[in-house]
Design brief:
single chain; about 220 residues; mainly beta; 2 helices
Amino acid sequence: MDTGWSVSTCLIGGSGQSSWRHTGLAGGVHWANSVTEIVAGEDSRINVNRLQHETPESFHVSTLQVTLARNANFVSQSATLGGRVTRNDLNCVLAGDHAEATLNGLVILGGEQHCDNHTLLDHAAPNCPSHELYKHVLSDKSSGVFKGKILVRQIAQKTDSKQTSKSLLLSDDAVMNSQPALEIYADDVKCTHGSTTGPVDEDMVFYLRARGVGVEAARHLLT
């Protein structure tokens, strides 16, 4: 088995955008371990795009640790499209007033692939909004886990945070485990979370088939 290890630290005081792509040789078995730390200074704007598209035999573990100062803005866009076993940890600390974080994730798996996404939005300062949306599309015997936590500390008054997890199961053998969580110690906040998991709506499939769309095309379109 080939192995890979990477550690990086970013100290950003202005604006920046970073794109990462994790791939592997076809037919190869490998293990990758990636650790990244981002410390965003005041008024900075950070946009991170991450694509993990490795072989069905690969193993991937990653950690992204983010700390946001006053008025910093952080956006994470991640997509997991491959890998035998994948584990992604994303921890974001909103440490300064009016810091803002947006976490978006997409997982599309088949076969016997598995993906864990664990996220933490740690509101450690007042007046900080955050938004989180993760979507999973699972077919065959694939499985997924979403464990997202919003932590609002006592000092973090006026927090406005929203978390959403949506999962689509394309087979009877696909499995999804969604665990959204709120831990709130402040009393002047607006926090919501929601989680849905289910198959393609057969009524909508029938509607499309009645209008000349094939069953596979209808399912693909709805997905």
